[in-house]
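anyone seen this seq b4? input:
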Amino acid sequence: MATRGPLALVGGDELNPGNEPQDDVLVRAAGDGPAFVLATAAGRQHPEAAVANAVRWFAGLGLGVEELPATRRSDAKDAANVARAREGRFFYLVGGDPGLVPKVLTGTPLWEAIFGAWVGGAALAGSSAGAMALGEWTLVRERMPGDDRRRYLPALGLVPGSRCCRTSRRSDTAGWTARSAPRRGATSSCSASTSARRRCITTAPGARSATVGSR
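predicted toks r here
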C-alpha cells in the first residue's frame, strides 16, 4: 500500500534560512524524481521571480527544481503538464494571492495528478497563500483591493476541516482574519512575521496520514 508523502504548510519568510528543517524533509522525499515549483499564487505578481527564488533556494539544499506552469486554467488542463505532474516527486506552491490557487487548480487534471503523486509518496508543500490553499478554506478580500475584511472561500481541501489563516505584522490581526468563519475543523496561524514559526502544524480530521513539516 502506498504511503503518502510529507506535507508542509509553510508560513512567512519561506525559501530563506531558517526553513531548512522542513525543507530537508521534502528534499529527501523527492529522491531523484522530477521536482517542481508552481507559481500559481504569484500569477499576478511576477511569477518568474518566485520561480527563480525557489530554484535558488532548493539548489542550495541539493535539489534541482523547475517550474510546472500553472498560472492559468489552461495550464492546469494541458496534457503535457499533467503528464509531467504524474511523474513528479516534489511539488512546492509558492505564496501570493490566496484566491488564485483554488481558482486555477480546483477540479483540474493537473491538481488530480499532483494529488495522486502525493498519495504515492511525493513531497508536497505550500507557502503562505500556497499553504492556505491546501486547507479546506482560504481567505480572500471581502470586496475589493485594499479592503481590510476577509471572507472564506473553499480551497483545495487536502487537509479537511482546516483553515490556515495568515496573520498580519500588526498587533491588530482583525484585518487578516475573517469576521465569521466556518465552524468545522481547526485553525492554524501562518504568520507573515519573520520572527514567527514558519511551519503550520495543523490538526484536523483526515490529516492523520500526512506529515506536516518535521512534526
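The two ends are 22 Å apart (CA to CA). Residues 140 and 150 are 5 Å apart (CA to CA). kinda curious what u guys think
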